């Protein structure tokens, strides 16, 4: 290689490194502003103020640092600079921004991950451009890459209360895609005919459920949704069979030969035998003993106790049931969810997901209200995956498990939303920001009657939203004062019947 060519390559490499060095000035502050502004958008804070404050990351603090350094070194023998002024500013920009990012990630890792996963593309909202979709996908993919940060900081408060560790259970096998009629609830309307059921235990629903009155259609295995009717073996269980876990299990095994219906009987017994321990859930200091024997005797438990008892009874009946831990979300919850435990049961070689806790009743004004239902019995994986996120991805029972960011971005619809045949057209995100009016559109092929309310976070009076259309439904909520709202959707098969909450979206109104 000639000397001229070496010289040319050296020059090219030099300017390439200089370009990368200069890019640090743009990339480092941009990362800091992106994270901080996403957090502000997620918490409905002043995004504009965060962006303006980004000027501190560059150029104000790095330049001021360099000027102060020069002032202190003036006339000193140490004033022998090796780097140029530009190089020093770039280096100081890198130090300032790395320190800022590290402090932000260290102090609020879970909130930062959730913010960039759900609102990391806030500045692209409403932008119409051919490259917008690619830019959004790139930003959210980058955010999902930080899932490890969330998991490193996040502890499941019920994990230590589980008697049989989920990791010891056999690896679940996802149902084949061609057999899963509910594989993608956001892309195709669901098929089964619904049955109205009750409200969720941990969130606080605002209305009572409608009675079950419509037919049920099975989807590849045990029927879902199924009528909210207790199994006859539970209804007819004599007092002598209720004395211990062993007697309960032997009674159910003798009364029901069909495996799927036997699992339903176990679910029904647990959901009605136990009351939810609202005081322990709300205090969250020290939970009472959640082992199966303890909660069976006390008839009081949080989700870990429900899951432990269901597994223990199944062990007596000879059925395979395991406990799954992870996060779950419902009404009035953060989009990433909170610690939870539920079950999976294997029937004829396939796994099905069950949450007896959420089928036992709900909380109202800090107290537990019994209200049996069967919404979360054998829920299709794609539907329970909207509200439940297991720590072990295999327990999603999906061919392509969701990332935690994808889970948080899903609108918070309950399984009954899909069982009612509803499909959310716009928006398809769990959280959005609007000016003074929020609009959403729904596909309502079964003509369900709808009520939609915007419930403010500050406990002010709810805003009644205008609902127009029967099949193609348009909803308008406004004008909304500045603040955060839970826009809740309620449905009823009859106009003057009772309306059940089937989902919500978080809306930030900027006023």
Describe this structure in words.
The structure is a single chain. This protein has 511 residues and is an alpha+beta fold. Among the domains are: 3-153, no CATH class; 411-511, Immunoglobulins (Immunoglobulin-like, Sandwich), CATH 2.60.40.10. The protein has helices spanning 3-42, 47-73, 85-107, 109-119, 132-144, 147-153, 232-235, 245-255, 259-273, 278-283, 292-298, 303-317, 381-384, 404-409, 415-419; strands at 275-276, 300-301, 320-328, 338-347, 350-354, 361-364, 367-370, 377-379, 388-390, 412-413, 423-426, 431-434, 438-443, 449-456, 463-464, 466-468, 472-477, 483-492, 500-509. α2 (47-73) crosses α3 (85-107) and α4 (109-119) packs antiparallel against α6. The longest helix has 40 residues, at 3-42. It is elongated, with a radius of gyration of 27 Å. Residues 188-219 have low confidence and may be disordered. Keywords: Membrane, Transmembrane, Transmembrane helix. Residues 295-358 form the Transglutaminase-like domain. InterPro entries: CAP/Cytokinesis_protein, Papain-like_cys_pep_sf, Transglutaminase-like. The chain crosses the membrane at residues 46-68, 89-107.
């Amino acid at each position: 290689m000639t000397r001229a060519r070496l010289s040319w390559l050296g020059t090219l490499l030099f300017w390439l490194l200089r370009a990368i060095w200069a890019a640090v000035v743009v990339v480092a502050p941009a990362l800091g502003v992106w994270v901080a502004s996403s957090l502000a958008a997620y918490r409905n804070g002043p995004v504009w103020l965060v962006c303006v404050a980004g000027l501190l990351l560059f150029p104000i603090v790095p330049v001021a640092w360099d000027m102060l350094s020069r002032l202190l070194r003036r006339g000193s023998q140490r004033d022998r600079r090796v780097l140029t002024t530009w190089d020093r500013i770039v280096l100081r920009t890198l130090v300032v921004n790395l320190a800022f990012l590290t402090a932000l990630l260290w102090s609020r890792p879970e909130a930062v991950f959730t913010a960039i996963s759900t609102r990391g593309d806030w500045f692209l909202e409403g932008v119409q451009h051919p490259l917008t979709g690619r830019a959004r996908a790139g930003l959210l993919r980058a955010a999902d890459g930080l899932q490890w940060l969330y998991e490193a900081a996040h502890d499941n408060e019920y994990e230590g209360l589980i008697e049989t560790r989920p990791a010891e259970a056999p690896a679940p096998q996802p149902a084949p895609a061609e057999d899963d009629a509910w594989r993608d609830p956001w892309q195709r309307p669901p098929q089964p005919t619904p049955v109205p059921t009750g409200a969720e235990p941990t969130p606080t629903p605002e209305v009572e459920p409608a009675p079950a009155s419509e037919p049920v259609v099975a989807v590849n295995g045990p029927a879902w949704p199924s009528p909210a009717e207790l199994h006859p073996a539970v209804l007819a269980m004599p007092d002598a069979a209720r004395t211990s876990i062993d007697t309960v299990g032997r009674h159910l095994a003798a009364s029901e030969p069909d495996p799927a219906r036997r699992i339903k009987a176990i679910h029904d017994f647990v959901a009605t035998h136990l009351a939810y321990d609202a005081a322990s859930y709300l205090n969250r200091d020290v939970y009472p003993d959640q082992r199966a024997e303890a909660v069976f005797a006390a008839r009081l438990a949080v989700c870990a106790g429900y899951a432990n008892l269901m597994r223990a009874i199944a062990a007596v009946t000879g059925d395979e049931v395991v406990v799954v831990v992870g996060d779950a979300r419902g009404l009035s919850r953060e989009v990433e969810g909170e610690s939870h435990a539920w079950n999976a049961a294997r029937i004829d070689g396939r796994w099905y997901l069950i949450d007896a806790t959420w089928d036992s009743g709900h909380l109202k004004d800090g107290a537990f209200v019994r209200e049996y239902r069967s919404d979360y019995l054998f829920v299709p994986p794609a539907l329970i995956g909207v509200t439940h996120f297991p720590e072990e991805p295999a327990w999603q029972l999906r061919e392509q498990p969701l990332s935690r960011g994808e889970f948080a971005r899903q609108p918070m619809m309950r399984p009954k939303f899909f069982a009612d045949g509803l499909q959310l057209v716009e928006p398809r995100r769990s959280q959005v920001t609007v000016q003074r009016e929020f609009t959403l559109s729904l596909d309502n092929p079964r003509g369900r009657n709808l009520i939609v309310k915007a419930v403010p976070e500050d406990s002010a009076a709810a805003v009644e939203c205008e609902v127009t259309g029967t099949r193609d439904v348009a909803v308008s909520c406004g004008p909304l004062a500045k603040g955060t709202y839970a826009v809740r959707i309620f449905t009823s098969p009859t106009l003057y019947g009772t309306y059940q909450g089937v989902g919500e979206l978080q809306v930030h109104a900027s006023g």
